[in-house]
Design goal:
Elements lengths: L1 H49 L8 H84 L5 H30 L8 E4 L1 H15 L2 E6 L4 E4 L1 H17 L8 E8 L3 E8 L34 H11 L3 E8 L3 E9 L8
Parallel strand pairs: 2-4
Antiparallel strand pairs: 1-3, 4-5, 5-7, 6-7
Length: 342
């Protein structure tokens, strides 16, 4: 689809270039041709006046013929030159037009691919819990020796799938809502965002979270969204802790002249090298989940976190990670303009 669109757009550009060349070439040809004829006529007039009185006038027809032949030759050369120049312009313009058309349509093509992949992945993620619910329900209904315990197990399992489905739809809605300019951006001290979120995870997961937070690090932010982004990273750190181990996490907040830096480090199962470039992609889930406390994610968390940080004109990156040694995520955010002191 996009290949044919590039070709159509290129043809349009080339047609426009050819029309412009034609519009300029016709007047140039006519003007130059007229000047050649005028020059030839003046030359003949000068020769006529310079001829000696005794020379027979029979030589003038030959002179006129030579002049016309030369004029025709000059016009032919002019026309050839214009054709060569115009064809060169059209060829170069066509090539550049193709590159320009390709470059112009590339963002649209990439956006279309992302949308297509997103739709396909979302459909798959939504179908899976529904398929499980349907299969379990059908098996239970066919069971002629159904007991209350089996029925409860089925209902409990179905409720888990419903919860998973709700989580997926909620995160999909988050992805569509997050973006653009937030009206909730206010000056906020990052300590007041990080500390409550870390306390929440300490209580709910019994995680050991060490804080090393610089004071007076003020940025313009949507506090709710930023807490969500930090919560996603903390949640991942806890989920991907080795089974049986207590989650150990450290959060460091520092600032430079123009930016704040949040580092969140864990001692979990880590991320293999070949997966590091994909961890912020939607629906991407790493394969190195063996031994993790929980690996039931849907691959949307870090994509949402990245979108939130992008909205804050910041950067989020995986600073380092290795299997069995944990991961360190780094978030950089611009300081509030009047807070640029070290």
């Amino acid at each position: 689809m996009f290949k044919s669109a590039v070709i159509r757009l290129t043809i349009g550009y080339v047609a426009a270039i050819a029309l412009i060349c034609l519009m300029f070439s016709i007047p140039v040809y006519n003007l130059t041709s007229n000047r050649l004829r005028t020059g030839a006529e003046r030359q003949a007039e000068y020769i006529r006046k310079a001829i000696r009185p005794g020379k027979p006038p029979a030589s003038f027809p030959e002179l006129v013929q030579i002049r016309e032949e030369q004029l025709s030759e000059d016009r032919a050369q002019l026309l050839s030159s214009l054709i060569i120049v115009n064809l060169s312009i059209i060829a170069i313009g066509g090539y550049l037009s193709y590159l320009f058309a390709k470059q112009t349509l590339r963002p649209i093509q990439e956006a279309h691919k992302l949308q297509k992949d997103f739709t396909a992945n979302a459909s798959h993620e939504l179908r899976t819990p529904l398929a499980v619910i349907q299969a379990q329900s059908e098996v239970t209904l066919r069971n002629k020796k159904l007991t209350l315990a089996v029925a409860k197990d089925t209902i409990s399992s179905n409720l888990e799938e419903v919860s998973r489905l709700q989580n997926i739809t909620s995160q999909l809605l988050n992805l569509t809502k997050i973006g653009g300019d937030s009206k909730n951006f206010k000056a906020v001290d990052l300590v007041k965002i990080i500390k409550p979120e870390s306390e929440l995870y300490k209580k709910t997961s019994q995680a050991d979270i060490e804080l090393n937070l610089a004071k007076d690090v003020v940025i313009q932010a949507d506090s709710t969204l930023l807490r969500q982004a930090i919560g996603i990273i903390l949640d991942n750190a806890i989920k991907y802790t080795k089974t049986g181990n207590k989650p150990e996490i450290s959060i460091t907040l520092s600032k430079s002249r123009s930016s704040a830096k949040i580092k969140i480090a864990d001692k979990g199962i880590g991320i293999v090298s070949e997966e590091k470039a994909k961890i912020f992609d939607r629906f991407f889930r790493g394969k190195n989940t063996e031994g993790a406390t929980s690996a039931n994610g849907n691959g949307l968390g870090l994509a949402i976190a990245k979108q939130i940080i992008d909205q804050h004109h910041g950067e989020i990156s995986l600073e380092k990670s290795s299997p069995s040694k944990g991961s360190t995520f780094c978030i950089k955010l611009p300081l509030k303009k009047n807070d640029t002191s070290n």
